[in-house]
Amino acid sequence: MRFDEPALRNPIDDLTVFGRPVARIEGPLKVTGAARYAYERTELGKAAYGVVVGAAIPKGRIRAIDRTAALASPGVLGVITTLDHDRLPTADMCAATLFGGDVIQHHHQAMAVVVADTFEQARAASRLLSVTYERAEGRFVLADEEPRAEAAPDTENGGPDAPDIDVVGDFEAAFRAALVRLEQTYTTPYESPAMMEPHASMAAWQGDHVTIWTSNQMVNWAVRDIPRALGIPAENVRVLSPYVGGGFGAKLFIRCDVVLAALAARALGRPVKVTLHRPVIFNNTSHRSATIQRIRLAAGSDGKLTGISHRGLSGNLPGGLAEMATSQTKLLYAAPNREIGMRMATLDLPESNFMRAPGEAPGLMALEVAMDEMAEKLAMDPIAFRILNDTPVDPHVPNRRFSERHLAECLRVGAERFGWSARQARPAGVRDGRWLVGMGVASAIRNAIPMSSGARVRLERSGRLTVETDMTDIGTGTYTILAQTAAEMLGVTPADVGVTLGDSNLPRAAGSGGQWGAANATGGVFAACVKLREAIAARLGFPAAQCTFADHHVRSGNDTTSLAEVAQRGELIGEDLIEFGDLGKRFQQSTFGAQFAEVGVDAFTGEIRVRRMLAVCDAGRIINPVTARSQVIGGMTMGIGAALMEDLGLDAKRGFFVNHDMAGYEVPVHADVPHLDVVLLDHPDALASPTKAKGIGELGMCGAAPAIANAVYNATGVRIRNYPITLDKLLHELPPLSAL
Amino acid sequence: MRAFTYQRVAATAEATAALARIPGAKLLAGGTNLLDLMKLEIEAPTHLIDIRDLDLARIEDTAAGGLRIGALVSNTDLASDARIKRHYPVISRAIVSGATGQLRNKASTAGNLLQRNRCPYFYDTDQPCNKRLPGSGCSAIDGASRGLAVIGTSSACIATYPGDLAVALRLLDAEIETVDAAGRTRTLPIADFHRLPGDTPQIETALQPSELITAVILPPPLGGRHFYLKVRDRASYAFALVSVAAVLHPDRTGRIAFGGVAPKPWRVEQAEAALQDSAEAVVSIAFDGATPTEQNAFKVPLAARALASVIARARESSDAV
Amino acid sequence: MPQSNMNPPAASGMTPVRFITVNGEQHSPPEDPRTTLLDFLREQLDLTGTKKGCDQGQCGACTVLVNGTRINACLTLAIMHVGDEVTTVEGLGKPDALHPLQRAFVTHDGYQCGYCTPGQICSVIGALAEIDRGVPSHVTGDLSAPMITTRLEMRERMSGNICRCGAYSNIQDAIAEFVGEPR
User: Interface pTM (ipTM) of the complex?
Assistant: First the structure.
């Protein structure tokens, strides 16, 4: 099915089960431990255990690896070292070596896998490798490398010819002429996805075919990249990833666990499973780059922005991706004069790559604090200031409208619900015992990305429907929303629908990332269901266009047949692919939100605790308010982490992230998170997808951290521009003890 | 984790005899720190002596009017004991401010005192650390040191003692009771139990090789208001940036000990006289000679502000922290 | 292979207990004393509901109940649990016969990816038992007063169970519903 015209009314719009709160259909498996993740599968037989050894230097070469002692250790079946292979091809969009060769690009790069009969044996033997390194000097400090940084054009939105800097009008002139100006630099730290399930893969070969159970967000990328890495034909690889214990970007691409499990299984002739132990994950895999962002804003006394400049810097290995922290600034606010662009510096640190809401999450942490500062300079309410500078069109392409944009409504609805009118504009004006209390707000934007997505829907003889696709559910609710889609289209209940996901033998779907999963994958199931409806109608001799499907029956005029009856005459299959035309180019398709936070700051110690949060979201049609709300509160929780604690600590001398475990890399715990309030606005987007949905998985993180940052300022009068906002940064500006 | 043999003992003498006899043997109680370190081979005992069946899990009154806390009393049971809650609430408060419910259920009283430090370089076997590998150098001094010690350190080590319970015990002047393989018992003040690093940061306590801790002895209750304030970035499940244990009396006398700032629970008795004056005065004496790094210099003013918070709470209400 | 030399406690006049009881079934302890309770459950008994998130006691995904008390299965050796009764998430309920707490997690969407979920559920049960026993927490006001199961208490007591998907707010709703039921 090609989607190149706005969606008209279609069977989804009945909203019998689509758009309704439905509990996760796989929920009972998850709460009882019956859902099996990659390392827990039994289909391949008893697997040997592989333990990965990471390099102990950040840059250089490996001269030699002596594996004698490891091989002699009890239970050891084999040791494969990086010197045994040439450098394996990496995944697309990745820069770090997966495995192979003597060059060390970063700390904890995979150097060897030690395989044994038991985990205990493999772990013990993994300590027995003797490695001779040749160290090289490395570049580890982002700010130090700024002079040598290169432009990172926004090719994702601007295509291959995207300019180094997106320019509209004459920013410098506007800035010089402006009555009110802001010029500030903001920094965001290195952050780790730190999902709960470590990277894990289990592989077994049958002849020259390999089957791999892994934990991966993008099965169709995995089956593209694995054959390349292993040097085998694409059709010889099957990948399964039915349950993913969190990813947040870390599992978009194959990592060394996949190739090491496959290489070891091939070498040993038996199934092998490999998981990255937690202390290795932080430096071996990927993270979000730190950023340095310089923002200049110009406005007249009326509060209208006349100019926006947002210039950012991130770092990565040579050939890696930039953290596009300035891209949302092109779309969020109107201003006739603009200059927006990213640069990237080369660093010899582990790979920076996509992490939840790449670009927008750190970008809004800077822009939305700048907007708060500017509102204060203008003596305007921060919400009024934002609404005043709202734009119905892409400010860089003024004839290009947003498909739907309800940012102002988000801000207004949120202000009302949150009790914004009680906010004291003067900072440090509210005390509650020892707590300084403040409120903050921030806008949120995250684009909707159309991607083709396929699915197959079977009406089985039993009368049951089964949805089949290689789509993944990384906690997002895919199982449930695909069941809802098929149920709505065929007039049954979600309980009548089975969903099989994460198998590369099934039709190729969009996968899970960039909040593109929900809208595209439901679009693919929608398309497959249209085909199935046609097949059913054809079997019954009904005109397909006039059929309605409801209450387990097909109706055409006065004729009615039950689906069960149809099914008894033999299985019917609908399979199709949703493909998108140029609506996404003609119209800017984005999701919007407003985040509100109230924090308390201990006037004595500077400890910051979030008291209340609210997110109001404009994300197209909400497919399932239960799972959509969960996506939003999850993003808000990650926003609390980003604002207040998450920080991969760099040892600038030794070139690695020091706090590489779950105690050192602090993420929010239960005690950090109050009840989180979410309002989901209902604005179906007929230009985005046939189901009029747009996705919401990353929107909830956007704006959450800067809302908290602005609340900290409102509470204390102390403006912190380098995240995370920790008490040591506040302490010297808190009221003197004599005043408490 | 290297291979080891395992033995579960029923009598204290059996444990100390095995400890003395078997090179590389270690005692195992809760195991929450030891097993973690064994996985990383920072600890590599050849033999584990599981002492959980020893009769050391009781809390008894002492003739002197205090309490004798068996070495194997779990952190949870100690924090929940009615006598502790009533007469030594600073102990309950300190315990429940640390770790998690799961860990406190497993961790023992003696094991808690013996937990090793949490310096990230100590935990990272790819990096030099004088505590883990004497003579290899200290990575923390010019590395990531935000959480590390500001006083009592040496050029060999700036690790912080990570525990909370010991800070409360130091405040109360508890004593540690031990027995060795020859059956000799001794008690030593907690002030002397944890050592400063000096040139030998690998030696963390005064415990001798075949010694086993049998109990912690609390002196009679001090009365006063008890506080344990733990300052940290996230609200729970984190080690202290700074903690303050305090017993305060209405006449503005009291005792103060700090955690998260030094290689051992940090109490400077002379500083306590300054409670009559101000929190800053106490801290200026207690932290005299501090040598913080650029990253952890905030801990000294934070200690003063945390203590001021405790003092303010003592004046405000009748509820403890 | 390392040798174990076990002297498990014996009830007087009875054969020494040599089993680890898991969800009511008796199992011989592992041969290798290095095997943690977590790896014993997952790799030898195929009880993979108990998850390994960090293997360092830093995430709580491996929380199980041992003699009714919650602990991290990653920081204890299986061999230490001869004579103990271990309950894992599989011992609480089945997909078609959910424990009321498991049902409350489904109702309130108290999870997303599901990986921390079994640990969260076991931890709730352990934490409520601790409240019943008068175990205080960091946020308990009066140490000597009867313990109350408030949201604030449960947020603190559950803080050893990290959920990176950020389902905390919903988990607390699930707990509140469960606690509201007679138990």
Answer: 0.97
